[in-house]
UniProtKB/TrEMBL annotation:
Keyword entries, A-Z: Sporulation
Pfam families reported in the protein's UniProt record: SSPI
GO BP annotation list: asexual sporulation; sporulation resulting in formation of a cellular spore
Recorded superkingdom: Bacteria
NCBIfam families for this protein: SASP_sspI
Record's protein name: Small acid-soluble spore protein I (Minor)
Native species: Domibacillus enclensis
Length: 66
């Protein structure tokens, strides 16, 4: 199994609270090794999102990066 698959498998079935903890830990730890996990989370979300949901996320990201 590749890294993406392993990360996806570890994230599958997590509750919203679990996912929040993963995100908060990655942010507070500031370690680059957590970046692939966040990327896979975004990819999984993106693939199941509507165009409108994607647009909202992109607008918020663009605003946060100003």
């Amino acid at each position: 199994m590749n890294l993406r698959g392993a990360i996806a498998q570890n994230l599958t079935g997590k509750t919203p609270n679990d996912l929040s903890a993963v995100i908060q830990d990655a942010i507070s730890g500031g370690e680059e090794k957590t970046l692939p996990g966040l990327g896979v989370m975004l990819e999984m979300f993106w693939k199941k999102s509507t165009t409108e949901e994607q647009k909202v996320v992109l607008e918020r990201m663009a605003s946060a990066l100003k």
